[in-house]
UniProtKB/TrEMBL annotation:
InterPro entries: FN3_sf, Ig-like_fold, Pectin_lyase_fold/virulence. This is Uncharacterized protein. SUPFAM superfamilies: Fibronectin type III, Pectin lyase-like. It comes from Pedobacter rhizosphaerae.
Amino acid sequence: MRIITKNMLLLYMLSLIAIIGACKRNIDGFVEDPSTSRAFIPANLKVRTVQDSAIVSWNLGALASGKKYTYKVEFATDTLFKNIEYTQTTDTLAVKLVDPVLTVNKTYFARVRVEPFQSAAASRWVNTSSFRISGQQFLKIIRDFEITETSVKLHWQVNAATTGINKIALINGSVTTIIDITAAEAQAGEKNLNGLIPDTRYTVQLIADKKSKGLASFSTLKTPVYTKTLSPSDNLESAITSAADGEVIGLNPGLYTISSFLSIAGKGITLRSITNNPANTKIRFRELSLVGDSAGVNLIGLDIDGNYGGASNSGAFLHLKGAGANGNAAAFKSIRVENCWIHNYTRALMLGNYGPSVSGSTPNAHVLKNFNIINSKIYDINPTGIDSYYVLSLERLQVINLNISKSTFYNLGCGLINLSWTLTGVELPIVTIDYCTFNNIGSQNKYLLVEAANRITFNLRNSILANSPLQGQTINNVAFKAGASSVLNFSNSNFFKLNTASGGTKLSLTGLAQSSNYEIDLGWSGSTTDFSLVSLPPNSPLHKASTASNTVGDPRWAY
């Protein structure tokens, strides 16, 4: 009898262990019975955002078919759901929330559970990953030439969807200032914001009552502090030669001429027009060489004309060379071209091909970490296409970051970028082209975009490319050459009339990972120099094609 009692007790304990083992502790710390809870936990939870709305959806649990459950959905700003901003119950398999219930550009998390059903307790929560809504976008892209040290001019679409716009939220870090929009400004679709802080990042939000109608960010310009200021009667060449490292030379409006082969050796300087306006400050500039370690230059608000003597054009504007001998090792300082017009050179914009003459013999002898072209126009560089140099011939230069943004390029020979020599090293080129317009480019059977020997990362987005090659010329039948394992992206852009010869076969974009692109012919020819998109229909997809739901191409042409 005692043996039987012990066996029964042992059997009872084993059964209890089995029952407990079949249960598990859920995310909230409660022990749940899978025979009731697991059967109806929401499955395949996902969230999809579209401009001003977020849709959270899910499927029935594995064994929940035929049953009608009630679901509880919570939206919070933290993963622990300590700050719950909105709660909703529903008997459907999805909920949709729209601005202003959710705040535009704010990070949210959502979770869903099944409410108690019959004798079963509530299920455990199922969570989404983070998400945010971008909101409706009726703000037009902000143009750099309408940003100063203390002001910005905003533009927006005037249509039925923007009726009721009455204020702008100006956000600087944690400080938000609400600015009223007058009826006249609302009708005109534009407003000047003044009294801003120089060198500051802002976000602006266009608002109609409580609903967001547009969101954009910009940075005010830094207030320049000039080491010296010059007038056209002064000797600019002498001022550059005698300048110390870090000097900022301001140029008053007028015409300046540098007809010699000028060098900046072992130092970095800035040349900037006082007005920051290339339309009234021009330099007829034959050639500028950056020589040796720490040589660099910033060019801001200038018209740089290669027709230095009034009768003939120079070959190339910028040259990167070693000190003592052209091929000697050099770690250059950065190059920045901002709000400039550069034109009338017969060979190239820049030559970075003075390094060692044998590919790979002295790896990375010439290094440039940052090269930026911003809000500029580059045109008439080898416009006949008869020279064999790329616009940026950087084949013996290890350039780490090459960024081209909000700029226009037209009438250019050969191709855009040459990185064709084999260079070794950890830091390989990252090339980013963003919000640019290209027209009438290519010759000498070269690659239209990039010729690279090394592995590179290349991102071309939010841009317009049209009309290749130059009249009477040919280009390679593919747009791109790059080393193995390169990352090559082409997205959110428009292209048309890209051929391998005038009237020839269509250029192949093989090798580029493409997404969200259009092929809309805008009617431009090779001789077009006005790329305005004002005549585009209001409903043209190109007005919303960019990654920020704005107009593609150089913003100066957007409206």
